[in-house]
Design a protein that fits this description.
This protein is an alpha+beta fold and about 260 residues long. The protein has helices at about 1-15, 30-50, 60-65, 105-115, 150-165, 170-175, 190-200, 240-255, and strands at about 20-25, 70-80, 95-105, 125-135, 140, 165-170, 205-215, 220-225, 230-240. Strands 4, 5, 6, 7, 8 and 9 form a 6-stranded mixed sheet that branches. Strands 1-3-2 form a 3-stranded antiparallel sheet.
Length: about 260
């Protein structure tokens, strides 16, 4: 337990230091794709620093994204195929790289001020996330240790990192002890989830329900969170579960930050 707690504390400290850093996958190390990567990372950093999920796809950012390099202090590449044998077709196309970009703190803060927002530099609450997935007859809750939801777990953790939020997920044993399943989570009151969240020292509970829609070929998602005496609800349709998780955790960040409802 001591090792786990030390790891969690280190992770949180690192996340706080990384507010002005973003990462994106690009093809090759050419300048054209690097500029596209800078633009994508600039939008992510503005959302992460402010907590304002509503900036995603905001047209006002286009002019700034076209000059994103002016806000960059450093960048680095990591070859996703590092250490792997070269495949036959690699001679005809570039390899994928993780492009990590650091931005100038003062410039990002000033840019947020220009578009009517402020940096969210105060305490970021630890968020317990309970998500039920439903695809045909399959219904399950995303857990920290279950193999059935390993892809969704990784996507939730990636979404939290991208939005600068600290999250905890329930363990399968804790859910079983409380008789919470994929079928019952949607109707489970927050008072029943609070004890599980409290065990992880979470300060808020976010619940989500993702249902696969064959017509839209995407997930229909409903999110709910109680914060500061209010119940907040939002939804999104026809998206991948990666995007649904970013919208869910991003929505919670927006509420926490005060930079939107």
């Amino acid at each position: 337990m001591a090792v786990v707690l030390t790891w969690c504390a280190s992770t949180m400290a690192a996340a706080e230091d990384d507010l002005y850093r973003a990462k994106v996958t690009v093809t090759g190390q050419g300048e054209a794709n690097r500029m596209l990567g800078f633009a994508a990372c600039l939008e992510d950093v503005l959302i992460k620093v402010s907590g304002a999920q509503k900036l995603s796809g905001d047209r006002r950012l286009a002019a700034y994204k076209s000059k994103a390099k002016n806000y960059v202090t450093s960048f680095s590449y990591r070859d996703q195929f590092f250490g792997k044998p070269i495949r036959d077709e690699q001679g005809t196309r570039d390899r994928p790289y993780d492009l990590t970009v650091d931005f100038e703190e003062s410039k990002i803060n000033e840019l947020l001020k220009t578009i009517g927002l402020k940096p969210w530099l105060s305490h970021r609450p630890l968020l317990a996330v309970f998500v039920a997935m439903e695809q045909g007859p399959r219904k399950y809750v995303v857990t920290l240790d279950g193999t059935q939801s390993d892809l969704q777990r990784d996507a939730l953790l990636a979404a939290a990192d991208r939005r600068g939020i600290f999250i905890v997920l329930p363990g399968a044993a804790a859910l079983a002890k409380s008789s919470i399943t994929g079928e019952t989570l949607a109707t489970t009151p927050s008072s029943a989830l609070a004890p599980i969240a409290a065990q992880e020292e979470a300060e808020a509970v976010l619940t989500g329900r993702l249902v696969w829609d064959d017509r839209q070929l995407g997930w229909t998602t409903q999110w709910q969170m109680e914060w500061a005496g209010r119940t907040h609800r939002w939804q999104v349709r026809g998206v991948t579960f990666d995007e649904a998780f970013r919208r869910g955790i991003g929505g919670a960040a927006q509420v926490f930050s005060g930079n939107g409802d």
